[in-house]
Amino acid sequence: MKIRSHKELDTYQLAFKASIDIYMLTKKFPKDERYSLTDQIRRSSRSVCANLAEAFRKRKYPKSFVAKLSDSEGEAAETQVWLDYAFEFKYIEQEIYQELYEKYDQILGKLVNMSLQPEKWSY
Questions:
Q1: 1 in a domain, yes or no?
Q2: Sign of the alpha-carbon torsion through 7, 50, 28, 109
Q3: Residue 122 pLDDT
Q4: What per-residue confidence (pLDDT) applies to 58?
Q5: What is the extent of the structural domain holding 79?
Q6: Do 112 and 12 touch, CB atoms closer than 8 A?
Q7: Is 29 helix (H, G, I), strand (E, B) or coil?
Q8: Domains in the chain: how many in total?
Q9: Does 2 map to a domain?
Q10: Which of 17, 27, 75, 109 is the most core-located residue (most Cβ within 10 A)?
């Protein structure tokens, strides 16, 4: 079966679910973090999905495809940094931190694999 939409990508589905988890989690962050940590982690987690959707639409141009995947990778890594801060400030428990961090490790691995084989995704 040929993938016709970015929504059918395992990577997208995993990243989308993780961004929803982060949104729900950040609703409990202190109010004084609203314009810093809360906004930043929400933005970066959503941007993983947005850049992946853009990459999928640019897949017939391998260099553009890989560039957008690289942007998505950067956003996933940034999300991990914000998770580090949230854990350090004790806004999230270790179990939740590890679960989300590992999800982003998975997402990063999938993005790297996609970028190493751009021809597999072109049409």
A1: no
A2: positive
A3: 82
A4: 96
A5: 7-121
A6: no
A7: coil
A8: 1
A9: no
A10: 75
State how far the Cα of 92 lies from the Cα of 82, in Å rounded to an integer.
11
> What's the pLDDT at 1?
60
Instruction: State both tokens at 34.
Output: 């609203």
Q: Can you tell me the distance from the alpha carbon of 100 to that of 80, in angstroms, rounded to the nearest whole number?
A: 8
Amino acid at 107: I
Helical pair 94-116 and 39-57, crossing angle rounded to 10 deg: 20
C-alpha to C-alpha distance for 102 and 70, rounded to whole angstroms: 19
Q: Where on the phi/psi map is residue 122: left (φ > 0), alpha (ψ -120 to 50), or beta?
A: beta
Q: Return the percent helix, strand and coil in the chain, to nearest 5.
A: 80, 0, 20
44 lies in some domain: yes
- For residue 81, being part of any structural domain is answered with yes
Q: How far apart are CA 28 and CA 33, in angstroms?
A: 10
User: So what's the pLDDT on residue 123?
Assistant: 75
Mean pLDDT in each 10-residue stretch from start to end of the chain (123 residues)? 89 98 97 95 98 97 97 98 98 98 98 95 82
